[in-house]
Amino acid sequence: MQFSRGMMTIDFLQTAVAALARLRRRLVVDTAGNTFILVAAAMLPMLALIGGGIDMGRSYLSETRLQQACDSGVLAARKAIGTTVVSTGIIPSSASTIGNRFFNTNFPSGAYGSANRAFTMTLEEDYSVSGVASADVPTTIMRVFGKTNVPVRVSCTAKLNFSNTDVMMVLDVTGSMAETNPGDSMSRIESLKSTVQGFYNQVIGSASPGVRIRFGFVPYSTNVNVGGLLHDDWVVTNWKYQSRESVVTGTSNTTTTYTRNWAYVSGSKTGDQVVRTYAGTWHATSATQGSTTVGPNEQVTTTQGQAAGGYYTCDTAAPSNTYTSSDVLLSTATEPFPGPPTGTRTIEYRRKTENGSWYWVSLSGSTCTIYQSTYNNYINTYEKVTDPATQQITQWHYFQMPKDVSNWRSESNGCIEERDTYEITDYSNVNLNQALDLDLDTVPNGSWRTQWRPAYPGLIYQRAIRWNGSGSFSTAEVTTNDEYIAPAWAGLAACPAAARKLAEMSSSDLQSYLNTLQPNGSTYHDIGMIWGGRLISPTGLFAAENADLNGNPTSRNLIFLTDGETAPLDVSYSSYGAEGIDQRRWSPSSPFTLTQTVENRFTFACNEVKKRNVTVWVIGFGTQMTDMLKNCAGDGRWFQANNAAQLSDAFSSIAKSMGDLRISK
User: Fold this and answer.
1) Is the per-residue pLDDT at 39 higher than 80?
2) Whose CA is closest to 81, among 67, 68, 69, 93?
3) Strand partners, 299
4) In what order do the strands lie in the sheet with 149-161?
5) Cα–Cα distance between 451 and 436 in angstroms, integer?
6) Could you read off the pLDDT of 167-194 as tens digits, one per residue?
7) By C-alpha distance, which of 437, 467, 430, 483 is closest to 582?
8) Residue 388 near residue 252 (C-beta atoms within 8 A)
9) Count of alpha carbons within 13 Å of 43, Cβ hemisphere only?
10) Are 424 and 600 in contact (CB under 8 A)?
11) What pTM was estimated for this model as a whole?
């Protein structure tokens, strides 16, 4: 029975009343010396009350201390369990040890003269930890009345609760995420997907009814794919791209040759004759197939992705060809050519003789047909004519090409070029009126400076860096035969999976989204942090959506995960355009390297995120944590995970820290 102060008082009074009743019965039977006995009898209630108060006070003190010990025990155990129990259903053995250690520290054995101290803990269905503590507290004066001890029993419950919580995950999906860490069986990207799903289960499983838990994602590499989140008036309608076009720079003399005046002489030729037919071979697949050559005499044509999910091929080779031909020059003549250009026409009079058979295979539906054409000393004469001609000389004009981008939603890939900025040399005095790329909150106002620009990687050429790496960047227009690097063709214009705004997600929604993450591109930390901050800021682009719900505060968290150090390339096409030519934030003559520029902007953006009351967590996965990453998170909020198990531990620690651990009973 749970200990109660009221019940203990009644118990003590009942003991005293019982003693007085026994005394009264004795007085009724024996009246000798009643005066003395009456005086003694009057003292007994007072003794019971005073003794009961003393013993009850000690019991009250023991109960209070026992309650504190019970509370500390279940709190420590629940904290040690964290959120992993939601997904695993297993309580770590260390949690029970920690809980008992805290209980024993707060209520040592024999405290207040107690005996039979006991403490048990139970994991409830809602993943709270309940406890029951008990002890027997000895009495002093109440022993006179036969009450030797007071049993004290208390209960307690600790629960991990999540208040309204927003979690923005900024995830490195660069090419190195396809690698596998030593000791792991899955690639980094697959380990990350599995861990994020487990983290989601832990957080959602610990949430109380009515609490809003939202998740958002910003996959980043060379760029970020945020186009689908932007309003139309947040994007420019015209922009200039470092591109090229073909231009005519002159003409040169050449010739053109053709045949004419074909005439039959003798012999015979059959038309297309069916040799035989046979059933095609079925291949079950959803892939669309085209024409392909299987053998030296067999042209195989397949159907185009049939509804049943497959296609037919003709796998039996046709008979070998016996066809031969000879082409003989009979005579040559010339005549003036009127032009343009003027000159001399050359005419060759020729005779062609054909013999033998020619075979081929054709597919119609599921039926293969072998055809044959046969030539029997089939002779024709014809003229082969060569005329003077001119051809245009073209070169590439590399320049900043204007483009109407009003159809960017259907034409581009969703990645963006950042809005206006400048080359910063003093990051302790950044002018956010100029560095709008680092301004997390300002909503575009119609000025092109405040708007984003859609990325068109297929248009970009790195003037004037050749494919062999020679040359140097040139902001001047160039007309040349040289072929300069096209980042899209070189794999240097990666556009990751689309970012997601904060929203409540089901487990299947999350899994579907994680399946879109594919590793590609280089490591540009700054653009990931910038857009992670924009999407979680309660005062920026999505302020209305990110406001506190019904006046209840929201816990805002940004988890930044990377598997590598900063690794930009000056020939890449990034969110700042063609860096070496556009020179919006960096140029080859800048006081900082491109890597330093990216890292300085990352640090500034991270500090801007924290100013918005967002807790930043940073995880280095399979990489050494740098001071830049550690300083961004701060002590206790950065983790280095060398493998998938440590990554899971890091996310579990974050989930546990995000929760609100409280005594619920």
Assistant:
1) no
2) 93
3) 293
4) 115-123, 129-138, 149-161, 660-663
5) 9
6) 999 999 999 999 999 999 999 999 999 9
7) 437
8) no
9) 5
10) yes
11) 0.70
